[in-house]
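protien #1 (seq + structre)
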Amino acid sequence: IIFLYNILMDKYSIRSYAYIGDAVYELFAREKTVLLTENPQKLHKATSSIVNAQFQAELLEHVQDFVTDPEKEIVRRARNIPVTTARRTNQSVHRLSTAFEALVGYLYITDRERLTALYKFIEPIIDECIACKI
């Protein structure tokens, strides 16, 4: 299993996992919120409440006991890559958000069942956040 892990790690960069994870998580968020309201302002508010650096950093904190050792390695590596942020953005929060996105991208590419399990694990937190926005 370590051999397979090393092959996958060489195939995609951590930035690639984060890039893909950003898109995959945004689609997941939009699928969750689109059925809640037809009001465009409420829809945007609900979606943006769960697709932002601060919330993703919080999700990453919640999943620490859920993730496996190889997944923790993805998170660790992604958390340590240099990121460019706007001056008003907290760089440490942005790094944690990038690590969450890398985890999602990694699972999307390597193990969709595990990604589904991750989504089910974080769904109550997401639902609670969305409920406050609609």
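ok now protien #2
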Amino acid sequence: MDYMGVINPFIAVRQLSMAFAGTDVQHHIDFFNKAEEYRNNMMDRLNRRELEIAVSGKVKVNNQDFYSRFPDFNYRYPAAGSVIRDHTIAILSLFLWTLILIFSFRLIIKRNNF
């Protein structure tokens, strides 16, 4: 979609606004990957605990201590620099459209002798 911003500047503006709001595809994929990594780590810890309980033969275990040591899932948004780096085509297309508009206005003004 960033390449379509060269044809239509409204698409470039939409892509950039979604990126800076954190609702674009790159943010979705980043969140999914980090959540999947957290889930896999949690599942590994649970599986290791179940294996330890099965090997030791414990009948009663303290679940509160085990679950209280689990870290909370904290998602950190990517930095603004990475958003700009991911959408350089959209930014460049907006600069191109700005230059085209400035050139067009100058041409119109010269032709009409304003």
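Residues 25-56 form the longest helix (32 residues).
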